[in-house]
Structures are given as structure tokens and as C-alpha cells.
């Protein structure tokens, strides 16, 4: 062993002797983070770097105040910045505490802290570290029935929940949003910080443990869901954030999201888009609350229009051995059977399969056929080249005709429901059911067709054009949201996976650059309560496997019927 090595070992041992402990936390870009606990100074965060970073840069990232004092040391190759625990942002306080005290835990209203560092822990310091106020040492002392302010090695101190810093408190389970029209709005806004630089406005989100850029940022905050736009926008955000490897982003790293890509509910509160979204949401909630939903015992007098998506030449999404057309049709057939045998609802399917009728298939593999027809007058053959264009519009024409016919016969508009069933093809890690509802912020005053292709159908000829008012769409949005959340809550309670971030949505993005849009089948639909259900994501193997399973399809159908019964006042 050389002389130089001996000196180095002596210096390291000396540092640890006087420092009590040094714990490596993680690497963030050019910075390496350490928790540094000394008998004299308590806990500090050490930011070590080989770059020419300044105190101001380090302060902006890690400190909770512009006035926070940062001690700086420089050696031949590295710079070290020392930030006192009290001056850290909560996210870094949490990282430090969990690393230094891995055996602490919360139970029955108390946080239990085990003393691990001889001579470095006192009641005052424990109060500062865990409650944010040293004066709380008196309360901690009284609760633990301690005589002295010093703490002995390996003893356990309990701290009541009401004194704890917020990040140490257990997360409270949120109440279900069954009767709250606004329950779809995430309380994630405080997680975003808004800033501006030469490239424009952006929001900062700091990744948590186990989160990925694709799902925790792109899907959650921008609303992009299809694989291409998620990947494209993820790399755009990574470039903006100075991230070289999107699969290796440190916990707490500041992700910069350009404001123009944010969903309106995540934009700055003073922005036009956020204010408009909030206004539309409140208006739909208010108007819907004034619209009386007539209760119906066992769904008597309720008309349910069931629309299985695609069909014929248009199979829809097809991944992992499952396709949209026939599997969604099977779910509709199951809902139809349950409603007709267990309730008094009137069921109106929009599509009919010539070869199998409304037969249910209790198999994982369903034969792919193309002989479905849309139930217009005359029937529209979905196995035609016009299926994906003309067929889409004929669906809402058919729904509008059926709606108008029932209302003219005296049916209350709130007792007519339209549900379109689909399966998505999204980014492969996105899972679960999502429901799309109409959105007053994107309503269109007039919609219709007058060309020959459409006029051959009675449902178009009887009324080629329809008009809409914002108030009408707002009421529809509010009531549809109420039923949508009823379905989502019941799916979760019945063990069916729903989309993690926002299971009920008002619009879709086709790409990173596209404007949001509402699917035509509900956008131009006059039925008061309407929605489009994406049962699952076929690009996700687990979702595809579930949809292939006849037991899942039966449970899904039962849950939809259960939700309709509850919505109309049945227990």
C-alpha cells in the first residue's frame, strides 16, 4: 500500500469520524447528491459536481428560498455546495430523511423515529427535521414522557401526525366521485411550477420514484395517448429538459413541459385556456344539477341505444390477437341480454350481425366476420368502402332520429341513453377503461350532410341538419359525466382496471400538433346522456388478454347495467 493511499484513507476516515455519516442519495444530470449529517451542523444536502455550476443554479433547483444560504467548497476537479436541511425543498427533504432513517414508519396516527446516529440527534433536531419547527420538541418530549432533551442510540421516538411535515403524513384515500360532477379533475396542479425562458413558457414536474416520462408526464399532463404522439412528445420534452436518456431519469429531476402542450386544466391559472375550461366545467355542473333525472324502477321507460364501434370492412384496432369490431359487439350483445331479461329497459342496438344475430360467444377466440349492418332505413352495409367515413356519420344520424322519435312520443329526454363501445390502440403502457363525453368548449352550432350518399337514408332525409346551443351541450356534458363516473366507480369496485390518470375525458388529440376533438358519434349526437367507452387498450397485453376473456366481457356488461340501474335511482 503506497504512501498516497494511506494518506487518502486517513483523510476519508477523519471526515467520517467528524461528519458522523455521509450517505449517497442519487445522481441528477451533472450533480451527485449526498446527505451529510454532522454533530455540529445537523443534516445538510451536499451537491457535488464537476461542472461550472453556480450557487444560483443550485439554489434554484434545490433550495426553498432565493435567500437560502449555500456554503461552497472547491477542490482541484470538483465543486461542492452545502445546503442546510431547513432550506431544502420538501421533495429533497423527503429523499434525505428516507435515506438517513430507513427504519422509520407511520402507524396509528404516529410517526415512529428510531435514533441511529450517536451524539448527532437531539429532541430539538428531531423536531426541526420531522415537524419543521424546533419548538415542537416540548410536545414531543411530553408525548414520549422523556426527562432529558438528549436522545439515546436505538431508542424510538413517536411524533403525532398533526405535527408532521406534509411529506411524512400518510396519503389520505380520496372519496369516490360518484355524485361529484367535478370529480374528474386531478388535484395535481400544485405539483407543477410555471416558469419562462428564451424558448417560452414551461411547467416543471419532478419525477417521483417508479414514474416514467411517458406515462407520468406526457399521458398525464398533455392528454396525448396514441403511441406515436406519446413517443414524439416525450423526446421533445426530454430535449427541452436536457435529458439524454429518457429511460434513466433520476427521481426529483425537473422535467420541463412546454405550456402549449398542457391540457387546459394544467395550464397556469391566469391563462385563457385554464379560465375557459374552469368556466365550462362549472357551467356544465350547474346546469346538470338543475336538470331533474326522473327515477325509474328497474329502468322502466328508459331507452338504451347501444352502439358497437366499427364493423364490416372496418375491424377497428387489432393487436395481440384481439380486434375491436367483434369483441365490442359481444359486449353489446351481453348488455342487451341482461337489460332485456333483468330489467324493463328498451334496448336499441345500432348494428346487426347477419350471420350471428345477437348471439353471445363464450370463447376467447371470436370468428372475424364482416357481415354487419347499421340499422338505418335502408340498412347500411358496413362491409363497404364507405364504412369508415359515411358509416361514422350515419351512426349519429340514426341516434338523433331515434331520440327525436321517442321524445315526440312523450319520453323524457333524460331517460334516453346512448353508449358507443370501442377498444383503443394507445401507447402500450397505458391501461384500463376510459370514457369520452361531450364537451361544451368544443361544441358546433350546426352539423349535417346533404349529398346523395347520405340522402338515400330516411334518417338523413327526415332532418339533414341539426343545430346545437352551448347550454344544451353543457347540460349533456354534466349529465354524461355523472353517469360516466358512476360506471368508472363500479368498474373499479368490481375489479376492472380503469385509466390511472383521467378515466373520464372530454376530448382526444390525434397527434402532438393536432387540436383537441370530440368523436363525431357523440359530438353531433342530440341524445342528452351519451358517451363513448374505450373498454381497454389493445396494444397493452394485459388489456387485450382481459377483453379476450368471456368472463371479463360478462363482468363488464353487468357493471354497465348495474350503473344504469343506480343512475336511475335503483339500489
From TrEMBL:
Question: What GO terms in the biological process aspect are recorded for it?
Answer: peptidoglycan catabolic process
| Gene Ontology molecular function | N-acetylmuramoyl-L-alanine amidase activity
Q: Which UniProt keywords apply?
A: Hydrolase
Annotated Gene Ontology cellular components are: outer membrane-bounded periplasmic space
The record's EC number reads 3.5.1.28
Tell me what reaction this enzyme catalyses.
Answer: Hydrolyzes the link between N-acetylmuramoyl residues and L-amino acid residues in certain cell-wall glycopeptides
Stretches assigned to the MurNAc-LAA domain: 414-565
Q: Name one Pfam family in it.
A: Amidase_3
Task: State what protein this is by name.
Answer: N-acetylmuramoyl-L-alanine amidase
Amino acid at each position: 500500500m503506497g504512501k498516497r493511499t494511506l494518506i487518502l484513507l486517513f483523510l476519508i476516515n477523519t471526515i467520517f469520524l467528524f461528519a458522523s455519516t455521509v450517505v449517497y442519495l442519487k445522481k441528477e444530470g451533472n450533480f451527485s447528491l449526498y446527505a451529510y449529517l454532522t454533530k455540529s451542523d445537523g443534516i445538510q444536502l451536499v451537491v457535488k459536481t464537476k461542472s461550472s455550476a453556480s450557487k444560483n443554479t443550485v439554489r434554484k433547483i434545490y433550495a426553498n428560498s432565493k435567500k437560502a444560504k449555500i456554503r461552497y467548497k472547491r477542490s482541484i476537479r470538483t465543486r461542492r455546495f452545502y445546503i442546510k436541511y431547513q432550506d431544502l425543498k420538501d421533495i429533497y427533504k423527503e429523499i434525505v430523511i428516507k435515506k438517513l432513517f430507513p427504519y422509520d414508519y407511520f402507524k396509528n396516527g404516529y410517526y415512529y423515529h428510531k435514533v441511529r446516529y450517536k451524539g448527532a440527534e437531539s429532541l430539538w433536531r428531531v423536531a426541526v427535521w420531522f415537524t419543521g419547527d424546533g419548538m415542537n420538541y416540548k410536545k414531543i418530549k411530553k408525548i414520549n414522557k422523556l426527562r432529558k432533551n438528549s436522545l439515546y442510540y436505538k431508542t424510538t421516538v413517536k411524533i403525532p401526525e398533526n405535527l408532521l411535515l406534509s411529506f411524512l403524513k400518510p396519503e389520505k384515500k380520496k372519496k369516490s366521485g360518484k355524485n361529484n360532477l367535478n370529480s374528474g379533475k386531478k388535484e395535481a396542479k400544485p405539483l407543477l411550477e410555471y416558469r419562462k425562458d428564451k424558448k417560452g413558457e414551461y411547467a416543471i414536474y419532478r419525477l417521483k420514484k417508479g414514474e416514467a416520462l411517458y406515462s407520468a408526464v406526457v399521458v398525464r399532463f398533455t392528454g396525448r395517448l396514441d403511441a406515436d404522439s406519446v413517443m414524439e412528445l416525450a423526446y421533445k420534452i426530454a430535449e427541452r429538459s436536457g435529458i439524454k436518456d429518457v429511460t434513466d431519469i433520476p427521481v426529483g429531476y425537473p422535467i420541463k413541459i412546454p405550456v402549449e402542450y398542457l391540457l387546459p386544466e394544467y395550464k397556469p391559472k391566469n391563462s385563457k385556456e385554464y379560465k375557459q375550461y374552469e368556466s365550462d366545467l362549472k357551467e356544465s355542473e350547474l346546469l346538470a344539477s338543475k336538470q331533474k333525472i326522473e327515477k325509474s324502477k328497474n329502468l322502466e321507460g328508459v331507452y338504451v341505444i347501444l352502439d358497437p364501434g366499427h364493423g364490416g370492412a372496418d375491424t377497428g384496432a387489432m393487436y395481440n390477437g384481439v380486434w375491436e369490431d367483434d369483441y365490442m359487439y359481444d359486449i353489446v350483445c351481453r348488455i342487451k341480454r341482461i337489460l332485456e331479461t333483468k330489467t324493463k329497459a328498451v334496448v336499441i342496438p345500432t348494428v346487426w350481425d347477419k350471420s350471428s344475430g345477437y348471439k353471445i360467444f363464450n370463447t376467447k377466440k371470436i370468428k372475424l366476420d364482416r357481415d354487419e349492418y347499421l340499422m338505418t332505413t335502408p340498412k347500411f352495409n358496413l362491409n363497404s368502402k364507405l364504412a369508415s367515413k359515411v358509416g361514422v356519420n350515419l351512426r349519429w344520424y340514426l341516434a338523433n332520429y331515434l331520440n327525436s322519435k321517442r321524445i315526440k312520443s312523450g319520453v323524457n329526454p333524460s331517460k334516453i341513453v346512448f353508449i358507443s363501445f370501442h377498444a383503443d390502440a394507445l401507447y402500450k403502457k397505458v391501461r384500463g377503461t376510459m370514457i369520452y363525453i361531450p364537451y361544451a368548449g368544443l361544441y358546433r352550432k350546426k352539423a349535417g350532410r346533404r349529398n346523395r350518399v347520405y340522402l338515400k337514408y330516411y334518417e338523413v332525409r327526415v332532418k339533414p341538419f341539426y343545430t346545437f346551443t352551448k347550454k344544451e351541450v353543457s347540460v349533456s356534458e354534466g349529465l354524461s359525466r355523472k353517469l360516466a363516473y358512476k360506471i368508472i366507480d363500479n368498474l373499479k369496485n368490481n375489479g376492472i382496471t380503469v385509466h390511472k390518470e383521467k378515466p373520464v375525458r372530454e376530448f382526444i388529440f390525434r397527434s402532438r400538433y393536432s387540436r383537441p376533438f370530440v368523436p363525431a358519434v357523440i359530438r353531433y349526437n342530440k341524445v342528452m346522456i351519451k358517451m363513448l367507452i374505450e373498454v381497454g387498450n389493445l396494444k397493452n397485453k394485459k388489456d387485450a388478454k382481459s377483453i379476450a376473456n368471456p368472463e371479463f366481457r360478462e363482468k363488464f356488461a353487468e357493471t354497465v347495467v348495474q350503473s344504469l340501474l343506480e343512475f336511475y335511482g335503483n339500489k
